[in-house]
Backbone:
């Protein structure tokens, strides 16, 4: 199984600041066939179901603000949230969908100071 | 409009079997995959398994001995059955396409 190591466990920032969340996979998520990285990012606000933010490591889901940026390739990935807003208070998870069984990262809790 | 909705018992006794149903609308089970994801209270997401559009299934390695996913395409329903439940199986169970559509989740408590 592919192991997803996500960091940090939690972070607290003020509105307007930038945050970076990291996810490292135990093997490459890059498909040699289509050169796509099978890594997605999800946001889960308190009391809600998760919401897809980013897929193929860097493609923003429709309707997701452009302050959410996914980057990385191979085994190292990053979710950057620029100009953090109060509404971004949530847990964030990475998910590898390169191979089954699928595996999530352990999550990052974002708090707003 | 795509919707997924989970249903099932809120309380299951230890050692018993959990049976959940995911009813989908707005898309065909023969065209899209449906996954089950669970979340213990206050903890992270765990992928459980998948019903592929062609009827194939895949399972979480740690759960595969206890877990079964099936479907009824005529009713647009996907089923999850997991046996030998223990208290650490308590949590919210979601069905999802993973591509952007999630159910609201169903809370399952394992307790006597």
Residues:
């Amino acid at each position: 199984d592919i192991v997803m190591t996500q960091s940090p466990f939690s972070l607290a920032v003020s509105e307007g600041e930038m945050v970076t969340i990291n996810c490292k996979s135990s093997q490459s998520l890059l498909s040699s066939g289509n050169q796509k990285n099978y890594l997605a990012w999800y946001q889960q606000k308190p009391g809600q179901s998760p919401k897809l933010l980013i897929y193929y490591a860097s493609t923003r889901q429709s309707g997701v603000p452009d302050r959410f940026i996914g980057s990385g390739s191979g085994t190292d990935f990053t979710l950057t949230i620029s100009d953090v807003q109060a509404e971004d208070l949530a847990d964030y998870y990475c998910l590898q969908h390169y191979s089954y069984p699928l595996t999530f990262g352990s999550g990052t809790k974002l708090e707003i100071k | 409009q795509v919707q997924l909705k989970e249903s099932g018992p809120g309380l299951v006794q230890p050692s018993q079997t959990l049976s959940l149903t995911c009813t989908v609308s707005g898309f065909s089970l023969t065209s899209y995959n449906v996954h089950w994801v669970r979340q213990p209270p206050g903890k992270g997401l765990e992928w459980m398994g998948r019903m592929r559009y062609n009827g194939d299934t895949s399972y979480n390695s740690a759960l595969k001995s206890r877990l079964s996913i099936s479907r009824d395409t005529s009713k647009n329903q996907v089923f999850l059955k997991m046996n030998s439940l223990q208290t650490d199986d308590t949590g919210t169970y979601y069905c999802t396409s993973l591509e952007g559509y999630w159910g609201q989740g169903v809370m399952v408590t394992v307790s006597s």
